[in-house]
Design goal:
- The chain is an alpha+beta fold.
- It contains eleven helices and six strands.
- The strands form two sheets. Strands 3-2-1-4 form a four-stranded antiparallel β-sheet, sandwiched between helices.
Length: 314
């Protein structure tokens, strides 16, 4: 279980008016509290809207849009990261598409070995420090959202070489929201089990203070600087950050296949600066035509449709 304390020893003062970070949290929390099926259904509608424009039907026969809770593991990281990043990105379809693609294998957003070999691994600590400075030194509403992809290079090499993939990957995608009052993390592990309901719990994406930020970055540095094989130290850092104990889950006669033997981490980051409150209401910018409205209703997503428009509380 995670060792990062939920106690606040240096919680920054919250602004008197709702901040962009608190509004984003409310939107995401509301989306996932309805359960996996409805959450996935809402993401399907959002995804289809960004991909196909203002009036496009949802293809209910495509595996790409499967919303059965037993079938959403294929996109559990995409579902969470895509929802948060699209909601935070500006009200512009091309930028919404970039945000949606970041964690999507089906949209060609995941890295290749060519990318890993030519682009240096991103430094989350530096991104975090810049975002914190912008939030604390700037105006009250300053918010930066970071999509973070911890890439399992060893598994990527095997996949591209067509080799045996009978291992559990440590790859993980999560999103950080960094505002004046502190930071939140939206994270659901998409390995051999999923934890989608966790985002609807009181502890899901809780507000964390800057002391916790230092601890978070310290443990993430352990992950990114490690090499060789999956060790007790790396496992402790991973468990502390993501509440997933891979040594306990993975191996012979355990729930999951063994962890990939060669530990090679690489990081990429999708940054959205100065997130405006208006960004979080962007779905009002997409009027619904009758076909997509009927598709949403068929998905049981009536709560996000009213007067032909998406509401910001998807």
């Amino acid at each position: 279980m995670s060792n990062l304390s939920s106690a606040s020893s240096s919680t920054p003062a919250s602004p008197s008016l709702p901040s962009p970070l608190s509004i984003l949290h409310k939107i995401i929390h509301s989306n996932f509290q309805d359960g996996p099926e409805r959450s996935a259904g809402k993401f399907v509608a959002l995804r289809q809207l960004v991909l196909d424009g203002r009036d496009a039907p949802v293809d209910f026969n495509s595996n790409l849009y499967a919303i059965d809770v037993g079938q959403i593991r294929w996109s559990v990281c995409e579902l969470v990261a895509g929802t948060v990043l699209v909601m935070a990105s500006p009200c512009d379809r091309s930028q919404n598409l970039r945000a949606l693609r970041f964690a999507s294998k089906t949209l060609g957003g995941l890295p290749t070995m060519k990318t890993v070999n030519t682009v240096p691994s991103a430094d989350l600590g530096e991104y975090f420090r810049v975002a914190k400075k912008a939030a604390v030194d700037g105006r009250v509403g300053e918010l930066t959202v970071l999509g973070v992809n911890l890439v399992d290079v060893g598994m990527l090499e095997r996949r591209q070489a067509g080799e045996d993939l009978k291992h559990t990957s440590f790859e993980h995608t999560f999103v950080l929201g960094i505002g004046r009052e502190g930071f939140r993390m939206w994270s659901v592990w998409g390995g051999c089990e999923y934890q989608l309901d966790d985002l609807a719990t009181p502890e899901g994406a809780r507000l964390r203070d800057w002391d916790e930020g230092k601890e978070f970055l310290k443990f993430f540095k352990v992950l990114t600087s490690g090499k060789g094989t999956w060790s007790e130290e790396i496992n402790k850092a991973y468990d502390t950050l993501f509440d997933v104990d891979l040594l306990n889950l993975c191996g012979k006669d355990k729930r999951c296949l063994p962890v990939v033997p060669d530990y090679k981490p690489w990081v990429r980051i999708f940054e959205i600066n100065d997130v405006k409150t208006a960004n979080l209401e962007k779905l009002k910018c997409y009027p619904l035509g009758p076909r997509l409205k009927r598709s949403c209703e068929k998905l049981g997503v009536q709560s996000i449709v009213s007067n032909g428009n998406f509401h910001g509380d998807i």
